[in-house]
Design brief:
7 strands; 198 residues; Alpha-Beta Plaits; two-stranded antiparallel ribbon; 5-stranded antiparallel sheet; alpha+beta
């Protein structure tokens, strides 16, 4: 059962069970809200408001790079409209920081990325995927927010992901992965981002 309320006109995209939760908009890349628990339905919907708040997001601390307060405020609105008390919930976050040479084929990188995203969506539990545009030095950031770490591991086990990881060494000048925990407090009244600890 979905707790998503009928949205106001400015959130028209929230009417369907299928949510655009990434830069990719064809059906194989859409998130099926019907497969998620109420807390995950609501956070995924709220994350459609996620955007970078600085042009230097590729090098800025993750918690300062995006409009998390706006996302959590939207989450609180959705929960309240559905008569739902949002429980404290945490999510697994992957941050991929990279630098690519200007000679790298962006089309090829895009093809690799699209296939890994399709696999991740099919595996279940990917709530949000975002990537930016490389800056003048080729630096960029991509990030995934998952229901939990198990989902992320399963989502990264496909052939497309394995191929993309093999390509990293040849296509990127540098790259780094961060693992974080995004914690939303009870009632969606607070949030924090901390290092992931196993």
């Amino acid at each position: 059962m979905s707790l998503l309320p009928t949205p106001p006109p400015e959130y028209e995209h929230e009417k369907s069970n299928f949510l655009v939760a990434s830069p990719y908009t064809d059906l194989a890349h859409l998130l099926d809200l019907a497969t998620l628990s109420p807390p995950c339905q609501l956070i995924a919907t709220a994350l459609t408001a996620m955007q970078a708040v600085t042009d230097s997001y590729a090098t800025t601390a993750y918690e300062d790079a995006f409009n998390w307060a706006d996302v959590v405020a939207r989450l609180a609105q959705l929960a309240e409209a559905g008569g739902y008390t949002y429980p404290e919930t945490s999510f697994y976050v992957i941050v991929f920081r990279s630098r690519v040479p200007h000679s790298t084929s962006r089309a090829y990188l895009g093809d690799l990325d699209a296939e890994t995203h399709r696999e991740a969506v099919a595996s279940g539990g990917l709530l949000k995927y975002w990537f930016g545009t490389p800056d003048k030095d080729g630096r960029n950031l991509a990030t995934c927010l998952w229901r939990n770490r198990s989902d992320a591991k399963r989502g990264g086990a496909g052939k497309g992901h394995a191929q993309a990881m093999l390509e990293v060494r040849g296509l990127y000048l540098e790259w780094r992965v961060e693992r974080l925990r995004f914690i939303v407090g009870e009632g969606a009244k607070s949030w924090r981002i901390v290092q992931w600890e196993d």
